[in-house]
Structure formats: C-alpha cells, structure tokens
Amino acid sequence: MELIWEKVKTVVKNNIPGHSYKMWIEPLEYSDAQDGNITITCPNLFSKRRVQENYRFLLESEFKNISGNTCTLDFSISDPRENKKRKNMDPSRSLTENIEKAEGHQKFLPQLRFQSPLGRLLRKDYTFDNFVVGNNNDFAYSAALSMASNRHSSQNSLFLLSKTGMGKSHLSQAVGHQILSSKPMERVYYITAEDFTNEMIHAFRHDSISRFKEKYRSNCDVLLLEDIHFLSGKERTQIELSLALDYLYENNKKIIFTSCCLPGDIPKLSEQLSSRLSCGLISNIEPPNFATRVRILQKKSKSRGIHIPDDVINYIADELSDNVRQLESGLIGIAAKSSLLGRQIDLELAKSVVQNITKRNKTITLSIIKKLVCQDFRISEKDIISRSRKQSIVVPRQISMYLARKYTQQPLQAIGKSFNRQHATAIHSIGIIDQEMKKSGPIKKQVEYLCKKLDDGNF
Would the pTM count as exceeding 0.70? Predict the structure, then answer.
C-alpha cells in the first residue's frame, strides 16, 4: 500500500502547481490501511484542515485509479502531542483560538496567515519550463527569470509589452510560480487592472477602503498586474495605484506589468502613473518566427498527448503566423476534428481547419469594415472619418475601430490614420467598446450583429 501511495503522490504532483504540491502534499505520509480505510498523517493541524478541504477528493480518486479499489482516506496528525492538544480543544472556542492554543506544535507553518484571496489563480501550465524561448522573446524571458530568481536585487519592476496572444501573461504568471516554489509564504497577487478597479470601487461602496489600501501597500510581496492600458481615463484608480506602487517600490517589492501599449501611448494616463510604469525595465515581445512556431507546436502537442506529423506541424506554423494563441487554436481545432470524425491527423484535415482560421483575416479589410458599419448605421464614409463629435457618428466610428482591431492585423497607428485619428484615439475607442461588450446594452447587440456578418462573410 505504501508503494501505491507513492504512485498517488507522483500523479498528483503532475496535476497541481508545484508550490501547492510542495506545501500540502509532499509532507503527507502513509500510516495504515484497514478495511478500505487508509490513514494518512499530516504534519500539523493546519495541514490536515487544508488537505481535507481541498485535496481529499483528488487523492481518493487517484487511489481508486491506481489500486482499482474504492477507499476512504482518514487524516491524522503525526505528532502525538498534537493529537492530544486537538482532543483537549474546547468546542466553544473559535477556530482561531484553538489554533493559537496549539501554536507551539506547528513545526512546518509557524507564520501561516489567514488572509483574503490573492486575486486570480495562476494557471498551472504557465511556468518557465513550458515557455518556448526564441529570438522574439529571449530578452523578456531572461528578464522575467532573473526577477523571479532574485539574481539582480536592483531589478524590481518589469513592463512586458506585446500584442495579445504573444505570451506576456505566461511570463508574468511564470514569475509567480517560480517565486512561490522557492518561497511558499510570499504573498503573490495576480490581478488584472480591471480587477484592481472593481475591487477599489467595492471597497469605497462598503466602507472598507482602508483594508483595500493595506492589502496592496503593506500585505503584498509580488504584484502581477495585467492589462494596464485598461486604466485609461480612470483617474481615481490611477491615483490609488500610483500610491500603492510608491509603497511597493520603497519596500523593494517585485512588480510586473503587462500591456499592449507603452505607458506613454496609453491615452488619459496621468503623468504620475506613467512615470512609475516606466521606471523599471520595459521589454517587448515580438511575433514568433517560423522555427519558434514549430517548437511551440511541438511542445504544446506533446503536453496535450497529441501526435501531429511533422508535415502538419510545418504547415500550421507556416499558415498561422500572427501569435501563439492562434497557433494553439489551430492545434486544438485539428485535434478536436480528428477525434470527432475518427480520422487520422493529416495535411488534408489540417488545411480544412486552418483555412477557416485564416479566411477572415485575409478577406476582411479596414475598407470593408468601414463600409459595413456605415451601411448599418446609415451614415456616409465621409461622416465616419470627419471631425464630428455627434454621438450618431462617434459610436459607429468607435465600433469600426474595435472591429478593425478584432478582424485585421493592422497596427493601431494604421487604424487611427484610416479614421483620420491618432493611434491614442484608436486605443481609447477600442477600450470604450470593450467595456460595452461586458454589458447587455444596445451597443453590444449591435457589435455582435456586425461580428456575425463578418464571420459569415455577409458583407
């Protein structure tokens, strides 16, 4: 049974983040087995409660898969003195009081803090080991790894810049994983700029702003802040973030920002915040070249257990050259179609999937989008590029820029110029429609209608 337990731990190790395994599963030990009840010992009371609440089902499931028999896990505390303390706990006391009573016997986690959730969960596959390094991202990779490994203590801030789908989120979360694997008690906050804004608004509405400020100014060791361009025009949020960053910088905390725009190119961004975003290292991630795209496909297909012939991989890498997310979409689409149709993956099947992905990018142009929107809103193309600020003109113009960003590969400068505007205006317009798409208003319905027309080729 001990051998089965070791196999269970090995399987679980491959299915949960490394720092979680090291913290909660690795210290567990097999103790006894009787009549389908397996006793597992935990190092302390904290560990027992955590494992029971979060990992019991996973462990029991793997026991059944490996041994072929259904079992029930019982968790005990390895230190007999701890068991004695637990028996003497007063049920009328709160959990915190009982834990404090047993504090003298907590060997592994003496400084465990009960704290609020630390933002979004890190994706377990977004690690440095799973990141494919090429000429397009080698500097960003080195900078992120250096920060995570604390090789250069003077480097505490990193700004990752790229278009969507290039891997900046992967690198940001990889830093979080790396730090937690070496220092499990570090307080790593992974959030988006939108999360930060919503959390601040909630704090104001519920009279808990002091707790919000303390969280980011005093109780944060590593801040991973995504999509910083979302803060365009949000003055109050910018002020609060600037103050929080001052505290973090003064205490040598680590901060990583990601964005599709340089700080200076984000419209309606305060000088105070822009200067703070720019004071660290700024690293750009470019689209991957052919060789890198091939290695990305090989690595992703291997991790998913999908066998893709070399000629198919080369075809995908040649056709889908925009970003990593597009590559992954092609890979998943080919695997899904192969599974559903019961066909082997070959070049013919790959072409049927890839052509659907590339079709719209090759046929939809700025001119087509402009014409479609003008027809739908019953305005002229002369109106949409005019200097008019009437809502009947501004909204179609903003929608056109949003669709141009979504359906074409044109840079923001080209999109803005096409509408007789600066690229900062294009960023602002796209951001406004992005927000409307999160609501259930008329603009969202209108955009969805236009998207369907473009997807169906009905233009």
Answer: no
